[in-house]
Amino acid sequence: MKQGYFRVAAAVPHVNVADVDYNVEQIKAMAKELDRLGVQLSVFPELCVTAYTCADLFHQQTLLNAAQRGVESLKEFTRDLDSVIIIGAPMRIDGAVYNCGIALGKGEILNVTPKTYLPDYNEFYEKRWFQPSHISANTPTLLSINGVKVGIEICEDLWAPIPPSTKLALAGAQIIVNLSASDDLIGKYAYLTSLIKQQSARCISGYVYASAGYGESSTDLVFDGKAIIAENGVILNANKRWTRKAAYEIADIDITAIDRDRLHTMTFNDCAARENASAATVSIELPEKDDDTLLRTVDPYPFVPPTDGLLNERCEEIVNIQAAGLAKRLEATHTKNLVVGISGGLDSTLALLIAVKTFDMLSLPRTGIHGITMPGFGTTDRTYENAISLMKTLGVSIREIPIADAVKLHFRDISHDIAHHDVTYENSQARERTQILMDIANQVSGMVLGTGDLSELALGWATYNGDHMSMYGVNAGVPKTLVKYLVKWFAENAATPREKSTLLDIVDTPISPELIPADSQGNITQKTEDLVGPYELHDFFLYNILRYGFSPTRIYFLAQKAFKDKYDNETIKKWLKTFCRRFFNQQFKRSCLPDGPKVGSVCLSPRGDWRMPSDASSALWLKECESL
Q1: Residues 177, 150: contact at Cβ < 8 Å?
Q2: 226 tagged catalytic
Q3: Can 167 be counted among the known catalytic residues?
Q4: Which of 110, 155, 276, 492 has the fewest CB atoms within 10 Å, counting from its CB?
């Protein structure tokens, strides 16, 4: 299992109804191909050895004998495979016939799981031919393949109020497989995929679904040959249906992520204890294949909404969360004035847009939003003009308060050389701006709206008691890559062309605190990403460390896949070390954060998702980074 991934396949072979010899050869050919591709577990459809639509032939001795021989043939065939296959076949047990899922590997029958819930309606009158599993003497069994535990259910089982997979997962199954023969009806596929996603999410598991396809009888039903692989609520792969030929889908299921989510989800563990779910386990060890390929997409931008039909809905949800949090804070404090420092950068722009949305929601005049621009030593014409343009376009109150003279006086007071552009030079400006905002908030009986984002909090890229402090941090749950995306989304939905052009130029402006003087042409010289690294990398690191608790080794592996065409290995390693170092030594800033709304699954609030000692050591993480 490379880097904690387990390779599975949902396989749909071509079948001939009741032609066992033909079907077995089709299964063998596909199983051999999947084994060559490094698959460790291949799942085939319900009753694929005989075909599902044999009807009354299931009580014919000729067919049942042939099915038994077919299973034996497949069992022997697996001696030369480095993988396990799970097939569907009718099995005679204690004088009755059962619809079974049969796990085969290394020349052994590892597990036989009869179907639990048999449909008895319309054309699916399975109780005419089969007995349900609760009458069988068989006990539930998990299959352990190199330590990965697999549970089996069959077709209708998934549709039951309490599917067998629920108890199998609670008993330890990390992957559920479903051997199915689900016909196609109008609207059924969408419902089924939703069911698979939901069950994999509830069970915090992988889910491999293989359903009967081309070759089944069309006397009364038609089968489209579904191959679907899901993981914890997400469809990893799904085949194109109606191909009229054999098909399969392969994916690498993230066992490490599944185990971490179960470890971190107390509801799952409490339910497992309450239900006292248990199952026997049969183990098999397969040779580990030397293969560094990863058959799944690694999203380089895990915080950014997908660019599909849900795009607008997702963005609206995010900004509504921010606005709802701010609205409640304003109502609770009876505040009708907000003070926001506007720099012409991404973070303050998003904060201002959320403030405007909130005031509109509460039917408050936008003039109650006091936008304060505070040009200093590093302010460029571009950011200054964008700040003014944005405030004018949005109709908020505007105040311009240059800070240069006040900071120079402060430098004299503390005996600091203004030519020495060190951290004192930079932080003095940030703290001066925060003092101005706080004092104006007193003047207008308002509150200061924080603009800092989640990525800056993770890196500690904020001046302690400067931009680090506010009375409500509306962007605290929004990482930099998402800030940029949301501002762009606001631009696409802007009320006027001027607002749109201003927002788009802000998106294109280099990220900078503008605390160091511009160059001779007036361009920004202090670019944040040159100093601490690309935010797209840091957001990737942040998501995988906090969401899944991954190690530096695994994050490095994933980053190589996600950014293979953009960053070389040394660059990724360099900034991963920077992230780990800063994430630990800057925790003290996060330990005293202002309130702010949680937006996604990753949050750094010391009152919420992340509780960490400010003096925790990064030694283990940095040592692992050095070994990469």
Answers
A1: yes
A2: no
A3: no
A4: 276
Coil/strand/helix, residue 120: strand
- 331 a catalytic residue: no
Q: What's the rounded Cα separation, in Å, for the pair 44 and 31?
A: 9
pLDDT digits (tens, 9 = 90+) for 331-382: 999 999 999 999 999 999 999 999 999 999 999 999 999 999 999 999 999 9
| Sequential DSSP letters for 146-213 | TTEEEEEEEGGGGGSSS-HHHHHHHTT-SEEEEEE-PBP-TTHHHHHHHHHHHHHHHTTSEEEEEE--
The predicted-structure confidence for 445-459, as pLDDT tens digits, reads as follows 999 999 999 999 999
d(CA 47, CA 587): 57
* Active-site residue, selected from the candidate residues 46, 249, 426, 536: 46
In the numeric block, which tokens belong to residue 68?
A: 């038994």
Describe the chain by its helix, strand, coil percentages, rounded to 5: 45, 20, 40
Maximum alpha-carbon separation in the chain: 101
Contacts of 419 by beta carbon, 8 Å cutoff, 6+ apart: none
Cα separation, 624 vs 555, in Å, equals 11
**Lookup: tokens for 504:** 């788009």
**What would the mean pLDDT of 404-422 be, rounded to a whole number?**
96
Q: Look up tokens 């509801």; give the residue.
A: 267
Q: Read off the pLDDT of residues 560-587 as tens digits, 9 standing for 90 and up.
A: 999 999 999 999 999 999 999 999 999 9
In 306-417, beta strands by DSSP E:
338-341, 369-373, 397-400
User: CA-CA distance, 190 to 238, in Å (whole number)?
Assistant: 12
pTM of the model: 0.90
Q: What is the pLDDT of residues 122-160, one digit of tens each?
A: 556 788 899 888 644 457 889 999 999 999 999 999 999
For residues 342 and 591, give the distance between their C-alpha atoms in angstroms, rounded to a whole number.
26
- Active-site position among 48, 75, 100, 115: 115
Query: How many other C-beta atoms can be found within 10 angstroms of the C-beta atom of residue 609?
Result: 14
- CB count, 10 Å around CB of 235? 17
- Give 99's strand partners: 90
Exposed, middle or buried, 159 (CB in 10 Å: 0-12/13-18/19+)?
Answer: middle
The bridge status of strand 247-254 relative to strand 5-12 is antiparallel
pLDDT exceeds cutoff 90 at 232: yes
CA-closest candidate to residue 192, choices 215, 170, 149, 223: 223
Contact, 621 vs 612, CB < 8 A? Answer: no
